[in-house]
Design a protein that fits this description.
Length: about 575
C-alpha cells in the first residue's frame, strides 16, 4: 500500500508541479546516452580494427548489431511498457545498457564485441520508447508537452551529433573501449534517480500481452532493416540475402497488421494510421531521418577524405548542426503555436532543401563559411520538421497506446536512417563509380577496387604509386565531389516531396483538452471509472485499478486520450 501511495504521489507531482521538469531532465539524460552510443563507435572503427582484427563481415556486424537489434525490438518493448509499466521497462533497460557497456569496453574478441553491441541494442530499445511515452503521461497538456518534446528532440540531435566528437576525443587520448566505459557511471547515477523520480504508468489493459504479435513485429522490422542495410552497402536487391529478409520482413509485418485488427486488445491500434495527421507525421519522420543520416554519412567522408580533417576536427565541424538543432528544439513550441503543424513541417522541409542546395557549392577546397552556413540551416530545418512531426504523432495517438505510438515513431526514425544510408549511398555509388571505367593507364583490378569507395581508392593509389597512382587518386577525388553534388540534388528533391506531404497535416494545434472515447477494442468487462470534473484516471504500480488525480493536471490529462479524430 505504501508503495502505491508513494508512486501516486510521484505521479501527481509530475503531472501538476515543478517535478515534471525534473522528470524531463532524467528522461533526456536517458535518451542522450542512447543517442550518443548510436554514433560514438563510428570514429573508433579504425582503432577497433587494429586491435581486434575482425573480418569484413565481423566489422560490419560490430557497427550494425546495435541499430539492427534496437530497431527490431522498439515495438516489442514499447507495447510491453503499455502493459507492465513504462517505468519498469525503462529501469530494466538502464541495467542492461550499463552491463552491455562494460562487456563492450573490455571485449577482446570480435564475437564478444558483437554480442555486447546487440545487448546494447536491447537496452536501447527498452529505453527509447519508454522516455517518450512517459513524457506524454507527465505532460498531459498539449502546449507544455510541445515544449517538452522540443527539448526531447533537441537532446536526440545533440546525442547523435556529439557521438563522433566525444568518440574522436576519447580514441585520440584513450583506449577505444573508453567510448563504452563512459556509460557505466552515468547509468549507475541515473538508475536510482529514475527509480525515485519517474512515475509509473500503463495503458490500462487487462488482457494478456500478445507475445506472438510482438515477435512478428520484431522479426518483420529486423528483416526490413537488414535488407535495407545490405542495399546501402551495394548489394543487389535481387541478391538472396537481400531480397529474402526484405520479403520476409514485409510478410511478417502484413501478418502483424492483420493480427492486430482481429484482436480485442491489440498491441497497436492500427486504426491510428487512418488518421492523416498520424500517418503523415510518421512518413515525415522517415523522410527527415533519410536526409539527415544519409547526408551526415557523406559529409563525414567529405570532411575526412577530401578536406583531410581528423576525427575530432570532423566532429567539431558538425557542431553548428547540433547547435542549430538545439535552437530549433528550444523554440519549437512557440513556432508550433505560431505556424501550426502543417506549415512548421512544410517550411522545415523547404529550409532543409535550401540548405542542401547551398551545400552543392562544396568542392575540393575547404570553405568553412559555406559549410557552417549550410550545416546551421540543415540542423535548424530538420529539427523543426522532426519536432512538429513527433508532436503531431504523439498528440494524435490514444494515451493507452502511448508506448506503442512512441515505438512507431522511433522505428520510423531508425528505418529512415537505414533507408537514407541505402538510398543516398546507392545514388552516391552510381555517380562515383563510372569515372573509373574510362581511366586509361591503370590496371583493371585497381580500377575495380577504387570504384568501391574513396577510402579504398586512396589505398590502391598509394600501392600503385607513380603517375598511375596519382591519376587514380585525382580521378577518385573529382568523382567523389561529383557524386556528392548529385546526391545532394536527389536529397533536395526528396525533401521537397516531404514538404508536399505535410499538406495533409492539420493547420493548427489545439492546446486544450479533447475528450475522445476509448477504442472499441477495449473489453466491456473492465470499464474504467468515469472521471468527474477536473479528474482523470491514472494507473499506478502494484495495482490493477485506477486512481484519480485532482486539479488542473487531472483535467488536462483527459486530453491525453486524444486520437486522430482531434478537431483542429
Amino acid at each position: 500500500m505504501s508503495g502505491t501511495t508513494t508512486a501516486a504521489a510521484r505521479l501527481r507531482a509530475a503531472g501538476g508541479g515543478k517535478d515534471r521538469w525534473v522528470v524531463l531532465l532524467v528522461l533526456c539524460v536517458s535518451l542522450l546516452l542512447v543517442a550518443v552510443d548510436a554514433t560514438v563507435l563510428h570514429v573508433a572503427v579504425p582503432a577497433v580494427t587494429e586491435d581486434l582484427r575482425p573480418s569484413g563481415v565481423e566489422l560490419l556486424w560490430i557497427v550494425d548489431a546495435y541499430p539492427l537489434v534496437c530497431a527490431s525490438l522498439l515495438i516489442l518493448f514499447g507495447t510491453l511498457g503499455d502493459r507492465v509499466g513504462r517505468r519498469r521497462v525503462l529501469l530494466i533497460g538502464y541495467v542492461l545498457f550499463g552491463a552491455a557497456s562494460a562487456l563492450a569496453a573490455f571485449a577482446r574478441t570480435p564475437e564478444v564485441l558483437i554480442a555486447a553491441r546487440a545487448l546494447l541494442g536491447v537496452g536501447g530499445a527498452m529505453i527509447m520508447p519508454a522516455t517518450l511515452s512517459i513524457l506524454r503521461t507527465v505532460f498531459p497538456e498539449r502546449r507544455e508537452r510541445a515544449t517538452a518534446i522540443g527539448i526531447w528532440t533537441a537532446v536526440a540531435a545533440v546525442g547523435a551529433a556529439t557521438g563522433p566528437v566525444l568518440g574522436g576525443f576519447l580514441v585520440e587520448h584513450f583506449h577505444w573501449g573508453s567510448v563504452f566505459l563512459i556509460n557505466i557511471p552515468l547509468m549507475a547515477a541515473i538508475l536510482p534517480l529514475g527509480r525515485w523520480l519517474l512515475p509509473e504508468s500503463r495503458g490500462g489493459f487487462d488482457g494478456p500481452w500478445d507475445v506472438l504479435g510482438a515477435l512478428m513485429a520484431a522479426g518483420g522490422i529486423l528483416g526490413l532493416v537488414l535488407g535495407v542495410k545490405r542495399l546501402g552497402v551495394g548489394h543487389s536487391p535481387f541478391d538472396a540475402l537481400t531480397a529474402g529478409p526484405l520479403l520476409a520482413g514485409a510478410a511478417l509485418l502484413l501478418l502483424f497488421v492483420r493480427r492486430q485488427r482481429s484482436r480485442r486488445q491489440p498491441l497497436i491500434d492500427v486504426r491510428m494510421f487512418a488518421a492523416p495527421a498520424f500517418s503523415t507525421s510518421v512518413g515525415c519522420i522517415v523522410l527527415a531521418m533519410l536526409a539527415l543520416v544519409g547526408l551526415e554519412l557523406i559529409a563525414v567522408q567529405y570532411l575526412q577524405l577530401i578536406l583531410g580533417l581528423g576525427p575530432l576536427e570532423t566532429g567539431l565541424r558538425l557542431l553548428p548542426l547540433t547547435f542549430a538543432a538545439m535552437a530549433a528544439g528550444a523554440t519549437g513550441s512557440a513556432t508550433l503555436r505560431l505556424l501550426g503543424p502543417r506549415r512548421m513541417v512544410g517550411w522545415g522541409f523547404v529550409l532543409t532543401a535550401a540548405a542542401v542546395l547551398l551545400l552543392t557549392a562544396m568542392g575540393q577546397q575547404d570553405r568553412p563559411a559555406l559549410l557552417t552556413t549550410g550545416f546551421v540551416l540543415l540542423g535548424f530545418g530538420l529539427q523543426t520538421t522532426l519536432f512538429a512531426a513527433y508532436e503531431s504523432m504523439l498528440s494524435e495517438a490514444p494515451a493507452r497506446y502511448a508506448g506503442g505510438a512512441a515505438a512507431i515513431g522511433e522505428t520510423s526514425y531508425q528505418l529512415g536512417a537505414g533507408i537514407g544510408i541505402a538510398l543516398l549511398g546507392s545514388v552516391m555509388n552510381a555517380a562515383y563509380a563510372p569515372a573509373f571505367d574510362r581511366l586509361a593507364g591503370v590496371p583493371a583490378d585497381a580500377r575495380a577496387a577504387a570504384a568501391h569507395s574513396l577510402g579504398e581508392a586512396y589505398q590502391v593509389s598509394d600501392g600503385l604509386g607513380g603517375g598511375a597512382g596519382e591519376l587514380l587518386r585525382t580521378t577518385a577525388r573529382h568523382s567523389f565531389v561529383t557524386g556528392l553534388h548529385v546526391t545532394l540534388l536527389v536529397s533536395a528533391g526528396l525533401l521537397l516531396l516531404g514538404a508536399l506531404a505535410a499538406l495533409r497535416l492539420p493547420r493548427c494545434a489545439e492546446s486544450g483538452p479533447v475528450a475522445v472515447p476509448e477504442p472499441a477494442a477495449a473489453p466491456a468487462a473492465a470499464p474504467a471509472p468515469a472521471p468527474g470534473p477536473g479528474t482523470a484516471p491514472v494507473t499506478v504500480p502494484n495495482s490493477r485499478e485506477s486512481t484519480e488525480v485532482s486539479g488542473p493536471a487531472g483535467a488536462a490529462r483527459a486530453e491525453a486520450g486524444g486520437s486522430g479524430r482531434t478537431a483542429h
